[in-house]
């Protein structure tokens, strides 16, 4: 929930009034959680879903861009790369015309053009917690059945900018 609030809040703070969500399959639990969180944050905005790939991101972002969305929160880095490609194929510039944010901070996201803003998960802390829980179970120590939640981080690079005025492509 915090991750989607961070990403959508970043775009709204830049003046993007139409922020859309590009997600993976709805039967994928992380995608469902992202959709629920985003919906709670921006219920007034139209939402799109796509397969968790560059191609899926391209298709969903194309639909959103045609409807006038200028801010795109993507549920994964591959989806965000597809969104950047869709903007370029529509003759738009990232971030001047369309802003895009990915999710997971994949290793090469600072090497893309423009470098992609993403939401980073604390993978090391998450892994340590998983190992600790597993060791406790092996040692027959009771472990809580609750879900563990970790604080994400918005890694700001160059794929967003203040909302500008552009015409919607046909």
Automatic annotation (TrEMBL):
Keyword list, A-Z: DNA-binding, Transcription, Transcription regulation
InterPro entries: LacI/GalR-like_sensor, Peripla_BP_I
Gene3D superfamilies, per database record: 3.40.50.2300
Keyword Magnesium listed: no
Domain of life, source organism: Bacteria
SUPFAM superfamilies: Periplasmic binding protein-like I
The keyword Metal-binding is annotated on this UniProt entry: no
Pfam families, per database record: Peripla_BP_3
Domain (Transcriptional regulator LacI/GalR-like sensor) ranges: 9-160
GO MF terms, alphabetically ordered: DNA binding
Stated name of the protein: DNA-binding LacI/PurR family transcriptional regulator
Source organism: Streptosporangium brasiliense
Lineage: Bacteria, Bacillati, Actinomycetota, Actinomycetes, Streptosporangiales
